[in-house]
Amino acid sequence: MWAIEKEISEYTFLVRNEYTGERYTVEVAREHRSLYDDNGVFTDLPEACPFFRKGRDNDLWYCTVHLTRPDVCREYGCWRFLILDSQGKRAGRVMGTRHLHAEDPVLQKIWDEKVRCLKEPDDVLWDEKMCEIIRSEGFIVQD
Ligand code: SF4
């Protein structure tokens, strides 16, 4: 959803929301700069937000610009995929690698019955299959 439009200084960026066109200035927090410098996350998650990183010694995910993150991130939290129902109402978010935070019980049921059992070890292929299943059920998936 966020694209870096301009590097203002070493850890400060102008970013643009690819859906709404809104722009924000964000700064990588000092405590996350070494984590930010490691781009390994994009090997498995090429579409991830430019500021999303996995902890080195744990399974936690970090927003490396958390102190200056855009308002929409403050409001909704971080996600890799935003899922909307056919009317455009928010139905859920895919967080981390494979976790769904659902607000729509129908979406939760589809996830439990059809997505949770996916045996795909490759994260990129898993993303593709998950999106295909969710879209085939009439939902809109945005990354
Ligand atoms: S909260 Fe998530 S989507 Fe928003 S800037 Fe941080 S890592 Fe990116």
Short description:
By secondary structure, this protein is an alpha+beta fold. The protein has 2 domains: 2-76, no CATH class; 81-142, no CATH class. Helix content is 28%, strand content 29%.
Please write out the topology.
Blueprint: E1 2-9, E2 12-17, E3 23-27, H1 33-37, H2 41-44, E4 52-54, E5 61-63, H3 71-76, E6 81-84, E7 90-95, E8 99-102, H4 105-115, H5 123-136, E9 140-142
Antiparallel strand pairs: 1-2, 2-3, 4-5, 6-7, 6-9, 7-8
The chain binds iron/sulfur cluster.
Iron/sulfur cluster is lined by residues 2, 49, 51-52, 63, 65, 69, 73, 78.
Strand content: 25-35%
Q: What spatial form do the alpha-carbon principal axes imply?
A: globular
> Counting H and I runs of at least 4 residues, what is the number of helices?
5
Query: How many strand segments?
Result: 9
- Widest sheet, order of strands: 8-7-6-9
- Name the helix and strand elements from N-terminus to C-terminus, one letter apiece: EEEHHEEHEEEHHE
Bound small molecules, which ones? iron/sulfur cluster
User: Any low-confidence stretches, pLDDT <50, length ≥5?
Assistant: none
What do the pLDDT scores average to?
Answer: 89
Q: From the helix content, strand content and strand pairing, which structural class follows?
A: alpha+beta
Helix content: 25-40%
Radius of gyration over all CA atoms, rounded? 16 Å
What multimeric state do the chains show? single chain
Biggest sheet details: 4 strands, antiparallel
Distance between the termini: 6 Å
